[in-house]
Structures are given as structure tokens and as C-alpha cells.
UniProtKB/TrEMBL annotation:
It catalyses: [protein]-peptidylproline (omega=180) = [protein]-peptidylproline (omega=0). Belongs to the FKBP-type PPIase family. It is an enzyme of class 5 (isomerase). InterPro entries: PPIase_dom_sf (IPR046357), PPIase_FKBP_dom (IPR001179). Its EC number is 5.2.1.8. SUPFAM superfamilies: FKBP-like (SSF54534). Keywords: Isomerase, Rotamase. This is Peptidyl-prolyl cis-trans isomerase. Pfam families: FKBP_C (PF00254).
Amino acid sequence: MKSYIYLFISLFIFTSCTLENSIELETEADIIQYISDNNLNATKSSTGLYYVINNEGTGTRPTSSSNVTVAYKGYFLDGEVFDQSDSDGISFGLNQVIKGWTEGITYFKEGGEGILLVPYNLGYGPNNYRTIPGGSVLVFDIKLISVN
């Protein structure tokens, strides 16, 4: 009986790892396809975040622990919007948001604008989160209004 339990646990762990790895591979391919389809000039960071700088900005550059005000629109690769701020933006600490924002916002200076393409491992992970399906690539149009 014990051997069946160990077998079940081993298969569960193997299947979970395989599922997560296949999501990651699909995510990378989907991001590359999106970049191609939308003719974007994106840069890939060492973490797998893709970003587009349309306007770097001229003000202060935030650090990963800065408090910032950002106007944004968040959507999936199919264009469906899942969240957005008004033009005044919202304020938050960069150490209190998804990893893709903590890293990505630091590529801009105040007044900067661009796009963040956030793979699931830098977003909400492989599990569903509110209205965001697990494993989702998230796209954000962002404008860094200020470093507070």
C-alpha cells in the first residue's frame, strides 16, 4: 500500500512540474508571436520580462523599492482588458506589486511610457487569480507619472 502512495505522489510531482514547464514554453512562444504580430521592438530581460520603451522619460528613475504613480491598462494577449487606471494613475510601492512591475517600471524615468509583457512567473503564477487565468501572459501599457 505504501508503494502506491509513493508512486501517486511521485506522479503528481512529475505531472505538476511538466505542466508548469509546458506553460512556460507556451508563454515564451506566445509573447514572441505577439511581439511579431504587433511589430514591437521589445527587449527581453534576464528574468524573461519583455518591455518596449516608447518614451524613456526625463525625470527621476525609480528603484525596485520606490513609491510611484503609474497610469496603466492591463490586458491579455487577445486584447481583452482586465484592469486599468484613470489618467491620473494609481500610487503604490514597487515592492508591493507583481515582479514584472517591480522590475519593469524601473526601466523608465518620470514621464516615460511603454509596454510590459509579463510572463506568468513574473505575474500571478500558474494559478487563477481573481479574473486572471493561471499561466496568463499579461500586457500593460504604462506611463510613469511620478516617483513619489
